[in-house]
Amino acid sequence: MEQLALGILEKSKIKVIAEGLNGFRIELIEKIGSDDIAQLIEVSDELVKKFGESAKLTKSNITKYFNKDTIPFVARQNNKIIGYIIGVPLEYFRKEAWAHYDVNLGLQNTIYTYAFVVKGNFQKRGGYSKSLKRVYLNWVRKRNYKFITGHTELGIAKNFSSNTETVKIFPEWYNSKVSFEYYRRPIKKEK
Ligand SMILES: CC(C)(COP(=O)(O)OP(=O)(O)OC[C@H]1O[C@@H](n2cnc3c(N)ncnc32)[C@H](O)[C@@H]1OP(=O)(O)O)[C@@H](O)C(=O)NCCC(=O)NCCS
Q1: pTM given for the model
Q2: Who lines ligand 1 at CB under 6 A?
Q3: Would you kindly state where each structural domain of the chain is located, as residue ranges?
Q4: Where would a tag sit more exposed on the chain, N or C end, judged by fewer CB atoms within 10 A?
């Protein structure tokens, strides 16, 4: 059975982007399959800790994040999903008020980082998050986008690169207890 009733494949259609010798792999998800959904939902618990239940992936909202317009990369360790980062062309959010603070809206030169999550026991070690982010940045660079943007807790984005700028501060951002900023990071061209 290739396709389930809901139009969701049984097995994700993926492209392997990077692979290590130790069972670590980064894939681009071209079409999400039901085999990965439960694992992604589990990883999204990390977001719930910070943003509350509304941030949790569910069977019904998963296609909001994994669809033909989004660019989702997942990291797997020994075939289990341990994290994901999702980029989306900024224009996808033209109906959102926040997107209109960005002067590049409509210029098709920006990828917005929709989500970046790594399971707690894989954070800050082994280079898991760093590798996932690096693959994402390279993908964006190769496609000639000029900027990556996103929302992060205030103060985090200044570490991304010296020319990352704060476009707008959001004192309230969903259920987070701290202020968030919308940042813009210029992407250097490939040498
Ligand atoms: C965000 C998260 C994936 C970072 O993972 P981590 O293992 O703690 O990451 P590290 O501190 O080792 O940093 C890894 C890289 O990610 C970058 N980074 C950290 N937080 C980031 C964020 N919110 N957005 C984009 N990049 C981020 C770091 O600057 C670092 O970049 P570098 O490799 O260029 O130095 C992880 O903390 C997490 O899952 N948090 C809960 C979910 C969350 O708050 N996500 C952000 C909003 S969607």
Answers
A1: 0.94
A2: 46-47, 50, 113, 115-118, 123-124, 129-130, 133, 150, 152, 156, 159-160
A3: 13-186
A4: C
